[in-house]
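New to this. Please check this fold:
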Amino acid sequence: MTARGTRRVRLADVGPTVFTRMSELAARHGAINLGQGFPDTPGPEHAVESAVAALRAGYHQYPPVPGLFELRRAVADHQRAQYGIDLDPATEVVVTTGASEALAAALLALTGPGDEVVVLEPYYDAYAACVALAGATLVPVRLTTPGFTLDPAVLRAAVTARTKVLLLNTPHNPTGTVLPPESLRQIAETARAHDLLVIADEVYEHLVFEGPPHQPVAALPGMAERTLTVGSAGKTFSFTGWKVGWATGPRELVEAVTAVKQYLSLGSGTPFQYAVVDALRLLPGHLAELRDSLRRRRDLLVTGLNAAGLIAHVPRGTYFVTADISPLGEPDGLAFCRSLPARCGVAAIPNQVFYADPQAGRHFVRFAFCKRRAVLEEAVARLATLRQTRPVPTLRTEGTNA
């Protein structure tokens, strides 16, 4: 390779994500994959039929860059009906290729070199990658264990003159924590006091199992004008492969995201966008069944993890369970997860990849419960053998994430 070809680029030293690595190990060993968070249950049949109808109607070409107006209007209607947030679908909603594009476009549009982005830790690993691509600096604010709660004093101390964005995720991946109203109020106070923008990743908004329902930070006083909210049809309707997400908020923030988004995907998923319009219209009937089913599957997995000798943190939202492996005498989650597929035929994700300090979270592992009950029952049966097995040595794979 020439000298020109060896020039360093951002993320050049980052290999495939931990999700890819653990999914590869799961496939190699025929393991049940409770690592990557994709459901194996079907989404609403009426939405599937809408997608088929759109395909047969010939909707195969690019949609408008901001997304189909019908879908933008449906998203605005959703925000009004669910949360009392009024949006202009023409200027305050943009449809994206999944929530990941919305987050990436927002960080690329709103931050740059010299800016700091405060994020709750542990955090979805794409946050760090997108902040690095923007040339900004990630500033983690660690949630306090064992309950994964937010200390408002730690949040305030993390804000400096260079802080531009507070990247908020609730319901929270990977811990399943749902920030209570008091924490949201404290976050809003900090954002207003320091004139911060807030990017609110609320893709699990409808997957809250107990207690108060999800409350968007944009609905709090003084927050609508500074908050960009990210949503996901994939998470709400179990259509993760459709890659339909959106961002909503003030016109100037949405325009900034759209300006970047047009050079990422331009537009995508035209028939799926039509289908999500119909799905959002019938959302209330879908949600009760989905939440009840996920709650039962959560309880099954939590009980099984505890019986296997781990200590499971019961999540109030999302479809992930974080478990402490230290009672098994396991000192390192990454080594544990590398050995797990061969050891008992289950794959999981080590939480330490969700921390800036690789030594943090070493004893936590994340399991997904968005799988069919029969699959979870088999996974629990396999995990029950952990106490009788010894770790299986595995070769270290290349890349910093696995």
In short: Residues 1-8, 392-402 have pLDDT under 50 and may be disordered.
